[in-house]
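Inputs:
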Amino acid sequence: MNLVFDIALTHIRFRLRQTVVGLLGVATGVGFSVMMAALMEGSQRDFIRQLVDSLPHVSVTDERRAPPVQPAEDVYAAVTFHGLSTDQGRKGIVNPLATVAALESWVPGALAPSVQTKAVARFGGRDTTASVIGIEPRREIHVSQLARQMTHGDLDALFKAPNAVILGDTLARKIGVRTGNSIILATAEGRAFLAQVVGLFHSGVRQIDENQIYTLARTAQVLSGRTALVNEIRVRVDDAMTARDVAARIERQTGYKSVSWQEAHEDILSAFKIRNAIMFMVVGAILLVASFGTFNIISTITHEKARDIAILKSLGLKERSVRSIFVIEAAAIGLLGCLVGFLLGYGLCLGMGLIEFKTGFTDAKRLPIHYSALHYLLAGAVALASSLVAGFFPARRAARVHPVEIIRGAS
Amino acid sequence: MSALIGLRGVSRMLGGEIPTTLVADIDLEIESGKFTAIVGPSGSGKSSLMYLLGLLDVPTAGEVTIAGRATRNLDEDARAELRLAHLGFVFQFHFLLPEFSARDNVMLPMRALGRFSDAENRRRADALLDRLGLSPHAGKRPDQLSGGQRQRVAVARALANEPAVLLADEPTGNLDSASSGQVISLLKDVAAAEGRAVVVVTHDQGIAAGADRIVTLIDGRIAADQARAAG
Ligand SMILES: Nc1ncnc2c1ncn2[C@@H]1O[C@H](COP(=O)(O)OP(=O)(O)OP(=O)(O)O)[C@@H](O)[C@H]1O
Ligand SMILES: [Mg+2]
């Protein structure tokens, strides 16, 4: 074996306790980094998957990005108008069936027109505001998870009673209603009618479960007082990650505001970016601390080995070779630490995957863990690099020592 | 015959608050086949001179030549190479690597030089240890050897690459008279039988008396340089 390697490995073999301590420092750093990355990415992916599942990938609404041209502007070429009442009424998507057909010709996925309106749901003495979504069940099953989220009844039940509605389970609990009961739906404009609860659903996202009521499109149209109204087309694209591009193209084609799930949740996605940045800092700090241990060990060894270094140099070993001895030791500690850390990290991930936990926004569930070789590679690379740096400085200082100084002292 | 190592007008000063002269105006030529003793009172600069002869230290004035070549412009790596190939050192302290066996310690300079295979190095190390009467101890670590045995291993290590010059700074300083005698006769043999130059710094009058040449240092200068009458 190469002499330099031989000396390096001998040093660490004869300092098993120190080596193991240093190695465990690196291993702990790597292990916890891997676990943290797996948890962070796991929860992020889980959250996004839920988001993507529970919402349309693209929502085409009857709004425009630019404020609509006001009638007065057609008449006067002035810059601003004061004191005019604006035309704000949402007209709905013009000719919705043709629009849907035009989009269906190219959009890779499914489309479902829907009618959105607001109402107060009342049962017994209790009431709550709700957002009512009028759907076509046959199309709905292709764009949302609603059919799968039903806890009582099914989507087809909407056809089986006049003014049938499906409620989010939290909403139902809030006003104390069960399937089979009739509730009153009332609008701000004063329209009201009895509706029969034919089913309940549970999406897992609290905001939806306590606010949403589904009904047939025409029921929602009656409620809104506008027959043939369609104010949203919901799109589920085959690949959720392409939603942004599809939304942009729909908007160019129809002129209607088309919002992809990414755009709708830009804030959450950018929060994830911040979260990831924080994670990288914490992980970096953990690994940095681990490298202090390596620094300490290599410093100690170089001090203990001052005489050996002196004789090696006086015999004729070059500074570079002496330095390599200790850098190799640091690398060995880093490398072994990584390997043990990988096992530790994997074990921690398995362990964490068994823990159940609860958040305020979703149901109790297992901690989502995302396994990725990249986490191991990254943590390993950072740990190894910082071990090398941590070893390099004491090694360089040791290798520069003038042998005469030590030989004089020892004789 | 040209000198193996030549010092011409060599001085070594230490800077600092109180400038110190370690050695001054040294003219010295070390020749092969000779056993040279450097003597002098404590603090007279014997060790300092030896470091200069061994290219471990650099003079502040004058020139050190090795086989006629000037060393002034050599960098540390180049001087390390010269030491490895042509010089051997023995100090008062043995400086053996504590985790390595006697054999491995002797093989160390051989492996660093890389002239032979590991198997050949091992054979050569065993031959050296055998010659120094250490065959039974080849596999022992330094802490399993006596002081005299350790010092003989150190001599074997100094001879590993068949150096032209062997430099020893009080090699018997820590030894009893029996061990001391063994080491000195070994060094003499190295000079006489193998034709290497051997330079020994010593306090021991007996050792000095047996040398081919005695260089006496006082206050960093050569006070006397006597050759024993050829006999
Ligand atoms: N680093 C240093 N700083 C200051 N003075 C030093 C230093 N090294 C050596 N000296 C001085 O230089 C002089 C020569 O030292 P050197 O070790 O060469 O003497 P020596 O003849 O080998 O002595 P000894 O017989 O005691 O080993 C001494 O007076 C010593 O005190
Ligand atoms: Mg001395």
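Residues 82-256 of chain A form one domain. Flag for discussion at group meeting.
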